[in-house]
């Protein structure tokens, strides 16, 4: 059997990806998580004297806490199996990646297990976030010093 | 008014998740790749000055998805760069976004203390 034929057969036998269904599930779950975030934002603004600008940070931290509880109870994995990107894209997904890696790391000890593995999954988010932020800030700094744009 | 802000957070946050899902399904990429792409997208949008208006419009719909991580990294770096020049790019980077990372580390530690590993990824 030549590779082309093999590819054809493979394509015929893989079940088609349910794009629309997956997108709908991601929309629903992701939207609900963000609406919960909005509720937490309001709580911080009303009860803890945060402003519109500063409440975002507190909200993110609280969402990570919720992700920790759900991950520890094994519930976030079930949510992820249903929602796909709907549970991975919100910051709770980032929290889940860190927390689950930390819990699993315990089998290898506190230093080499928990400490080293914590950012095993989430590290790429930090790397690409910091990397792109660095280059964008640099480009803008150069453009401003050349007088092309303003701050 | 309050109801609308929930609705907008739901719709905008949901749509960002749909973009992530499409990157995964259509682009055949892993969740790790998808999140990396979204973080870079958030950083680029802030560089163009577009992410802050989105936060003003959508609230948690824009601050909860991981794109806001790229946005706040860039935002901190730009704000400090404006004040202190080259050094500010490095000193300002984690100024705004520190809460997400420190929360993840602290809660990761606490979770490792409380919960027992279950074998398969949680």
Automatic annotation (TrEMBL), chain A:
A Pfam family this chain is assigned to: SpoVAC_SpoVAEB
Entries under InterPro entries matching the protein: Spore_V_AC, SpoVA
Transmembrane segments: 26-48, 54-75, 82-103, 123-149
Domain of life (superkingdom): Bacteria
Key word Lyase present: no
Keyword line: Membrane, Transmembrane, Transmembrane helix
PANTHER family: STAGE V SPORULATION PROTEIN AC, STAGE V SPORULATION PROTEIN AC-RELATED
Name of the protein this chain belongs to: Stage V sporulation protein AC
Organism: Ureibacillus aquaedulcis
Automatic annotation (TrEMBL), chain B:
UniProt keywords, alphabetically: Membrane, Transmembrane, Transmembrane helix
Superkingdom of source: Bacteria
Matching Pfam families: SpoVAC_SpoVAEB
Residues annotated as signal peptide: none
Residue ranges crossing the lipid bilayer per the database entry: 6-23, 96-115
UniProt keyword annotation of rRNA-binding present: no
InterPro entries: Spore_V_AE (IPR014204), SpoVA (IPR005562)
Coiled-coil segments on the chain, per record: none
The keyword Oxidoreductase is assigned to this record: no
Protein name: Stage V sporulation protein AE
Organism this protein belongs to: Ureibacillus aquaedulcis
């Amino acid at each position: 059997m030549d590779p082309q034929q093999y590819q054809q057969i493979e394509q015929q036998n893989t079940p088609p990806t349910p794009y629309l269904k997956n997108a709908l599930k991601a929309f629903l779950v992701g939207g609900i998580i963000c609406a919960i975030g909005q509720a937490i934002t309001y709580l911080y603004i009303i009860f803890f004297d945060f402003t519109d600008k500063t409440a975002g940070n507190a909200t993110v931290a609280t969402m990570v806490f919720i992700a920790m509880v759900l991950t520890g109870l094994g519930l976030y994995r079930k949510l992820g199996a249903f929602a796909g990107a709907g549970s991975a894209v919100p910051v709770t997904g980032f929290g889940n990646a860190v927390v689950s890696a930390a819990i699993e790391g315990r089998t290898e000890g506190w230093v080499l297990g928990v400490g080293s593995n914590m950012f095993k999954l989430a590290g790429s988010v930090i790397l690409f976030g910091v990397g792109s932020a660095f280059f964008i800030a640099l480009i803008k700094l150069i453009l401003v010093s050349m007088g092309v744009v303003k701050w | 008014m309050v109801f609308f802000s929930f609705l907008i957070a739901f719709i905008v946050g949901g749509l960002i998740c749909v973009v992530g899902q499409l990157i995964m399904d259509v682009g055949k990429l892993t969740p790790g790749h998808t999140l990396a792409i979204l973080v870079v997208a958030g950083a680029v949008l802030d560089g163009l000055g577009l992410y802050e208006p989105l936060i003003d419009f959508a609230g948690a719909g824009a601050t909860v998805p991981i794109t806001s991580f790229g946005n706040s990294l860039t935002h901190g770096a730009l704000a400090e760069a404006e004040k202190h020049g080259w050094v500010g790019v490095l000193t300002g980077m984690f100024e705004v976004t520190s809460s997400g990372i420190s929360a993840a580390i602290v809660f990761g530690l606490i979770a490792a203390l409380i919960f027992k590993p279950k074998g398969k990824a949680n």
